[in-house]
Amino acid sequence: KLSNIVSNVIITLGSNGVIMCEKDNIPIHIKGHLVNVKSAHGAGDYFAAKFILEFLKNNTFENAISVANKKTAEFISA
Questions:
Q1: pLDDT tens for residues 8-47?
Q2: Selection from 58, 59, 52, 56 nearest residue 71 by Cα
Q3: What number of other Cβ atoms are within 10 A of residue 19's Cβ?
């Protein structure tokens, strides 16, 4: 298991959402948001930046991923 080596793992799945796993915990699937995609260009960078900003604000791994997931869906559909 990768999460036994690395303390936190995030796997983005596009429209299928995100899988997150914290060390020694069961992976959690956060569902994607169905949007009308205009361009996915830069979506990964946007997700990473939003995740880091949210994590620094509230220091909650799952919440930061949820916010980044939602905001990235908004970004690619704008």
A1: 899 999 899 999 988 888 899 999 999 999 999 999 999 9
A2: 52
A3: 15
Tokens matching residue 64: 């930061």
Cα 59 to chain centroid, rounded: 14
Could you tell me which residues come within 8 angstroms of residue 45 by beta carbon, excluding any fewer than 6 positions away? none
C-beta of residue 62 within 8 angstroms of C-beta of residue 25: no
Reported as type and span, the H/E element at residue 13 is none
Burial class for 7, CB neighbours closer than 10 Å (0-12, 13-18, 19+): exposed
pTM for the model stands at: 0.86
